[in-house]
Specification:
Length: about 1000
Amino acid sequence: MRLHRLTLTAFGPFGATQEVDFDALSSAGLFLLHGPTGAGKTSVLDAVCFGLYGAVPGARQSPGTSLRSDHAPVDLPTEVRLELTVGGRRLEVTRRPAQPRPRKRGGGFTTEKAQSLLREYGAEKGWQALSRSHQEIGEEIGRLIGMSRDQFCQVVLLPQGDFARFLRADAEARGKLLGRLFDTRRFAAVEDHLAELRRRAEAQVRTGDEHILALAQRIAQAAGPAARESPLPEDRPGEPGLAEGVLQWAAVARGGAGERLDVARCALSAAEARNNAARDALDAERELARLQQRYAETRRRAAGLEERRLERDRCHEQLTRARKADLVAPALDLREEAERAHRAASEARERSRAELPPELADAGVEQLAGAERNLRSDLGALEAARRAERRSRQIDAERAGIERQSRADDELIQEAADWLAGWDGIHRELRERIEGAQEAATRAEQLAGRLDPARRRLDAARRRDALVVREGTAEDSLTAAREHALAAHETWLGLRERRLRDIAAELAEGLADGVACTVCGSADHPEPARPGDGHVDRATEEAALAAHRRAEQYRAEAERELGVLRERLAAARAEASGEPEGEGTVQAAGRGSASVAELEAVVTGLTREHAEAHRLAAGMHGAREALAAAEREHLGRLDVRQQAERRAAARTSQREALEREQAALEAELVTARGASGSVAAHADLLERRVSLLADAADSLRAEQSAAQRRKEADGTLADAAFRAGFDTPQAAASALVDATAQRELQHRIDAWQAEAAAVADRLAEEDARAAAAQPPATPDAAQSAYDASGRLLRDSAAALAAAQERCTELGRLSRQTADEVRRMGPLRQEHERVSRLAGLTAGTSADNERKMRLEAYVLAARLEQVAAAATARLQRMSSGRYTLVHSDARSGGRRAGLGLHVVDSWTGRERDTATLSGGETFFASLALALGLADVVTDEAGGVRLDTLFIDEGFGSLDEQTLDDVLDVLDSLRERDRSVGIVSHVADLRRRIPAQLEVVKERHGSAVRHRAAGMLSG
């Protein structure tokens, strides 16, 4: 990698655009970068790192820091452009950090996002853009260089202070630096991965052991008393002997449970024999008790039969008479039915006789029938009179309807006449409404055209008055801001001049005995400068500068706000002074001096007039609709009046015809009504009389027929009673019993006979008579003995079932435990293997004698390579005296692996690098840095690093050592490298002709190129 050109704009202390030509500086192979403290030498290196990686080294990239120059104008963006050759490709990287910029509209600032651009130069097409993506550019640069930002800062921008601390640091600090450079995170990841595998395997083994212990607890619960004979193993989860101990303990528990199972089987056999004997004795006692009870019950039933024998004989006699009376029952029913029919006919005859006229009360059937025929003849003659009466009623209804229609038509004619009388006035009024609405619509359009300009002028006048007030306030604020900014600027300049006068005293405050001066490089400080009266420190100056910048920013903001207000005020005045289009008061308010009150009055008047005109114009449609409706109603009322007049003429002739017809009908009805009020009433009277005569004749005939049937039934009943064996019909009737009662009597007789047969059979049983002769049975005692033997049997069976279940459960749990132990076998082996590997890589295993972690072991190998590469240059710088060697010896209780010693050929002894003097430490750290650069470059894939920078430390060398160091640096040109030295040492300016000087000025730093006495900048 070779740098060609670096362009910085508004970056760090550089307020303007500065350009560094590395091609010109590198032509001599060795060049010097120098300048006063704080001028920006390190910022040049920061710009190189920022151009490549988009970030600056170390703490200078901490949050809150800004890369933008405070000296730069606000419209000049911060930018870094770096041109370099890497991997055989000519590239140009342009980067802009996130930075504030003025807003394009309005005031204030806005934050502009970071930007990046990567271009490549080709012989044919020139510069071609490759990418604008931060991520793509970073990946491409990192791939070509082959180093991260931290590696680049340590290998290319050689910070000597860091390597001096590296020489004196302990193994842990060296490990952190080497870890960043060589990226040994993959080895640390291997350690973490093995540790995680060990934790997982340990957790799995512990989980399996906990499961085995849980099974053991379940075995103990299942074994019951057998488990108390042998306690559980006391091993904890994860201990090696836990599984075997649990298996042995489970075998002992199973043996004890098997012995208890055999004992339970013997006890059950004895209990079953006792229970069978007790059950046989109980059955015998129960059978004896049953036979004795059966014989006693049979004797009680025989005595009961003798007691119910008289009742059985009475039932048999009653049943015999009832069955004879059943033969007379039909004749009895016939006689009773004839009696009921005769009584009903007599009652009906008496009721009809009471309703007849007195002269017909004792008339016979023929007389009543003749009177009925006469009345029916009179009733038929009234049918024509009925029709005439119905027609008369219809004529009355028609005449009433004609009268109603006549009254309705008269009302319509009068209403139409009243409405038509005012038609001319209504028509004229509606036409006037339409014409007025048309005029209002025209005026509303005119007023709308005048109202909008008046409103705009009113709004402009209001803005004008408000802006006048704000303009005065802004002018006062600007005056105060200018005075404050001027005072802050003068204060800052005064403090800066006073600090520059005493800058030597400020630098002297940082001196310490034995520590090299950052200006001259000397470790001796015979007469350090003293601060004078009124000394100003850096914090005070920076506070004053910050106050000055805030005051300037406030002043610029006030000027911008005042300018914006004046522009808006001019626009408002121009809009408020426009010529109005109206007349009268509008012309008076139209002049540029019109006040808001005058314009408000004009707008209010126009608004009111426009609203009134719009309201009147809105009634045009309604007026037209009302006119059309009125015209339709006018035609309709004329038509209604004509129709009513025609209907009135037709009704007159119809009324006369109805009156003539009704007079003729009335003459006919007077004769037909007789004494009744109407023909219908007279006909109803005749119909009632006909019905009474017909009912009386029918009831008389029914009474005569019922008397004849009753007489015939009496003869039939007397004959039937005699044939059945009864003296009188009344005796036969008293012996009648219904079918239900007869079935009940037969049931009683059959039940007595069945009971008598059953008792006779049971008295003939020999076993019952034999049992009755024995002593009374005792089944309760036998039941108690049987219950006791049953309880003993159940207890024995339960004990056997529990023992069998315990043995089964113990067998199942033991098999589960054995399966779990077999399953845990590979996990235990894996755990032991992973634990050995994790302990070995973590440095905690006994096999790791030096207690070195894997990452430290790899870094130790890298450190050994770095020490070998650094020794080649250190021997030349020290005239062959010193050699750097790697040491893996342990120091105290710390781990070994990253020790670094120096071998002194003058004494032949090996000692720690912390014992080197200041100058020896410098060239030893320089050699170490160069050697580290070679090793990192080789590891990065052999990428050539043609440009290196070495920062400070040369002031601690004597003249001879400085010559040796410069010879070594000059030898780097043999590999076509260029080396830039960053130093304050004045002797280097004489020895190195190619120089890049950074000059500190009030308005920002600047760079100047020097080559063989020539100056360019």
